[in-house]
Design goal:
mainly alpha
Length: 185
C-alpha cells in the first residue's frame, strides 16, 4: 500500500508544477526588472557563484558530449552569446546615484527577452523530448540524444553567461562608485 502513494503523488505533483510554471515565469520577470540597491558584496558573491556554476556546467557539457553530439560546442556558443548579452545588459542598466547609495534597474526588454527565450526553450525541450521518446527505436537513435538536450544546454549557458557578465558589471560599477564617493580628490 505505501508504494501506491508514490505514483499518486507524482500524478498530483506534475500537474501542479505545470500550472505554477507560468506564474513562476511572471514572478521571475518582475524580480528581474525591480529597482535594487547596488551592493558590492552581493555582486561579488554572485560573480563567484555563477563563475563556479559556469565552470561545472562546461565540465558537464564536455562529459555529456560523449553521448550527445554537439553539447559542448552548443554550450560554449551559448556562453559566448550570454557574455555578449551581459555586456549589452550592463550598458542598458539605469543607474541612480545619490550620496548615500547607488541603485540600478535592469533593462525591461532584455530581461523579457531572456525570460521568454528560456521559457520557450523549456517548452520546446519538453515537446521535443516527448517526440523523441515516442520515435525512439525506429531510427536506432537513443531518445536522449534526439531530445534536443544540446539546445537546452546552450540556453542554460546563455543565461549563465549573461548573469556572470551582468553581475561583474554591477560589481565594477559599485567599486568605481565607492572610489569616487570615499576618496577625496
Amino acid at each position: 500500500m505505501p508504494l501506491l502513494i508514490v505514483p499518486l503523488l507524482l500524478l498530483l505533483i506534475l500537474p501542479l508544477v505545470l500550472l505554477l510554471l507560468p506564474w513562476s515565469i511572471r514572478q521571475r520577470y518582475r524580480a528581474g526588472t525591480a529597482r535594487r540597491q547596488a551592493r558590492g558584496w552581493v555582486a561579488l558573491v554572485n560573480v563567484w557563484g555563477i563563475g563556479i556554476s559556469a565552470a561545472i556546467f562546461l565540465i558537464t557539457a564536455a562529459i555529456s558530449s560523449a553521448w550527445i553530439p554537439g553539447t559542448f560546442t552548443g554550450t560554449v556558443a551559448g556562453l559566448a552569446g550570454g557574455f555578449a548579452l551581459g555586456a549589452v545588459g550592463v550598458r542598458l542598466i539605469h543607474w541612480e546615484r545619490n550620496p548615500s547609495a547607488l541603485h540600478y534597474t535592469p533593462n525591461r526588454w532584455l530581461v523579457l527577452g531572456i525570460t521568454v527565450a528560456v521559457a520557450g526553450r523549456i517548452g520546446f525541450g519538453f515537446w521535443r523530448m516527448w517526440q523523441a521518446w515516442h520515435l525512439s527505436g525506429r531510427h536506432g537513435e537513443p531518445w536522449l540524444a534526439a531530445s534536443g538536450l544540446a539546445g537546452s544546454m546552450a540556453a542554460g549557458a546563455l543565461v549563465l553567461g549573461y548573469f556572470l557578465v551582468f553581475w561583474l558589471g554591477v560589481w565594477l560599477k559599485v567599486r568605481d562608485y565607492r572610489r569616487r564617493v570615499y576618496s577625496p580628490r
